[in-house]
Amino acid sequence: MPTMSPWRAVAEALRAEGVDRVFGLPGNPIHLLPELDRHTKIQNILVRHEHSGVALAFAYARVTGKPAICYGNPGPGITNMATALLEATSASVPVIALANGVPMGSDGKGAFQELDSVAHMRPVTKWATRIVDPKTTPWVMQRAFSLAKQGRPGAVFIDIPSDIALGSVAMESYRVSPPRLRSRPEAAAVAAAAKLLARAKAPILLCGSGAISAGAQAQIRAIAGALGMPVFTTPGGRGSIAEGHALAFGQVGLYFTRLGKEVYDAADLILSVGSRLEDFSTGAWQLYPKGAKLIQLDIDPHAIAMNWRPAVALVGDAALALDDLLAALPATDSAVRRERGAALAKSKATFLRVVAAEGARKRKPILTRQVLAALNRVFGHDTILVNENGGADLWSYYWPYYKVLDEGDCVPMGEQTAMGMGVIGAIAAKLARPDKNVVCVAGDAALQMAMMELATAAEHKAGITWLVLNNQALGWPQYIQMLEGLPRVATDFAVSPDFVKLAEAQGCKGIRVTDPTRVEGALKAALALNRRGVPVLLDVHIAKHDYPPHFTAFHKEIWGLGAKGKRARGGGG
How far apart (Å, rounded) are the C-alpha atoms in residues 34 and 133? Predict the structure, then answer.
């Protein structure tokens, strides 16, 4: 058996697993980094905050579909990583976080930066562990890769105590983790689901992040086409179908457009693929088509019937299960389906014309829908949209105000919606896919939560655009204050940064836009600079409290705001 330190064993594991980059902030540089430098070609991406390392790994894993690696430091370094690991687990994204922990020999004695890191990380990861015997390091790393990618993907945390991390011991050579295991649902369940689909007159397909994890885009196109079935997504499932496709009808729940909700409400069957059917995507589980049946497909049996009870449950890999469903479908061509298809196409064409007319309006203050229409025109295909979380930038969730034009080209957050992660994650999206344009649509509040990483983009010549929708406020909480007749307290930024100067101080290009006639020109300039490896921050000053129609309806009808009734959850900026 070879003799090596645990950190050398970690480096060997990362090399064997094909890792090409790690993201993090070294507090004690004698640990991981020298081993990577001496024994691998893995690139280190230095960040300005431990949270940022996880945010970069999150986006990198979402874009590549493979586990991504980040690292941090003891005590506050570990707590700084927790928020983004929570987001990774909630969003089903495979991230492995490493930390050089406090020495085992001083455990419980009040050591510098002492923390029960495993207890802290256990609620926000699939697996949290501490290496207590250095000989187990290869097994721990193999287990970490396996758990991060198998079943419903998620985050793993490994603490390597400093006093055992540097000494050399004999240990097994690393064996690469098994490839992602793919299972099929029971044949009887597939047959029952196929029968329901064949009988349905108005079925719809709802895709969550599990459709992305399984790489099931081809199967989604095939089954939707075979049945003339409109395709909806959750934020996590966005990219399951190109949103220029004839059967793409946008997102659900909070993110409905008028046409999308009309089609959804008329459905007599929902085929849900890889979604836990969570709060915002279901309107707190209230938005369900009357009398419709549900077929729920998920790789995780714990997700089945978590909220809505399916008529048929399919447990397995989304791509394989949809292949089986397609094979089991009887002939389904009918006059009813043809008539429905023609009516849907007519309604969609009318709606797209209305949205296009809205996007063409130029008024001051600038309307967000105008900005997004111009963004789609200028950046076009092969553009990865990285979402942020807030009232103004939520417009970018709403098809067809913005369309994700190619499959897979979206990096959303999970239901935790941690602000600032998209601003940071856009850098990793560009590193993962340098052939793509990358744009992050963010509010000014979200940008301020992550603005220290603009320099990271400049350092790595990551030619991305941050499209900052600037309303000098925490717009969503302020909107709730308005609805409820509350004082407008702690939601306006009395002093707002000069984002142009901020960008240029960190090696990026800053462009301020206050005139609606300059929006398209600014986007063209940004794209040209991006192609030369220059990151660009577009500071676009927008109208306050201009929201998509269903966003405002959702607050009143689902959350009871602006009238007596239920009260809202927290919002964003």
Answer: 22
